[in-house]
Amino acid sequence: MGVDAEYGDMVGQGTFLGRLGSAHPILLAPMAAAGGVGLAAGAMAGGAVGALPCAMLTPGALRSQFDELRARATGPVNLNFFCHRLGPAPDDSAWRALLAPFFAEYHVDAPATAPPLRAPFDAEMAAVVEDLRPEIISFHFGLPDKPLLDRARATGAMILASATSVAEARWLAAHGVDAVIAQGWEAGGHAGRFLGGSADAQMGLMALIPQIVDVVDVPVIAAGGIADGRGIAAALMLGASAVQIGTAYLHCPESLIHEPHRAALASDAADRTVFTNLFSGGLARGIPNRLMATLGPIRAEAPPFPHAASALARLRTADPAGFGPLWSGQASRLSRPIPAKALTEHLAAEALALLGGTGKGWPT
Fold first, then answer.
1. Is 364 within a domain?
2. With bands split at pLDDT 50, 70 and 90, how would you rate the model's confidence at 112?
3. Which end of the chain, N or C, is surrounded by fewer C-beta atoms within 10 Å?
4. What pTM did the predictor assign?
């Protein structure tokens, strides 16, 4: 038995890697407004699973991006969708009043008509995935209603969904997902919590992985605070079959973040990420900026997800760093600004070396 085969037996992920269809058990995290075709193509060129975040795309834009990605890269693609309930716009007068001093300073106002919001997976997007037939479809904030989930599953795609607790993992497994993404407290961006509960109760990833592995009969993908080979190796040794990495890829030149966000990711401020509800109304981890410093990271006046974003639109245009989110997980300082292909290859080689592999590839 060769070293790679022994490694496959040791971490129990060889079969799942074959199902993923990628060279490495690494998934690029879908990151709205930060990830896109270029970042996905680079990660795929390095052997990872590519991802397109779809919650802020129109069906036409998704088709265009998917076709461009297929033309630029080979390998499995994950299309990611949100599953929140998008009700009517709430009364946000208290939120606008809280923002009024900023409106006056920048000589702007909240938009009279709400700009496009993060949209949940719906029948129109189901029709798109039926046409595109990606290898993987993933969901955040639970799962869509059964008729929509059945349509997604009928495409033949592998179905993934995020869990922030053991209870959520059990629920997802009972509803037939092909793998659970265990999202730890450390993860940047929106926490995928969908069964309620306090954010303070969310586990760190190293505690969450083995507890989910022990109670579900599907593979587990680890997400949150993984930014180097040590994190990958630790997650796999705890029973994960793969890892999903986001913040490390934000540093890559192919990511779509603005320059102040890049600078913040490499600064001492990246050590002080916190959960905030200011930017969307949903809890998400990011680097503190002016809005968070002035108002505090959590405000009851912020409308529920995703409506808080509407009133901020013109302030974000005027000062993206001060009034837009600087999403980041807790391991940003472990990363460097290298191309996505090189980053993926480095992560895989480092993890294999730590786990006793040859560096020639993972078992399939």
1. no
2. confident
3. N
4. 0.94
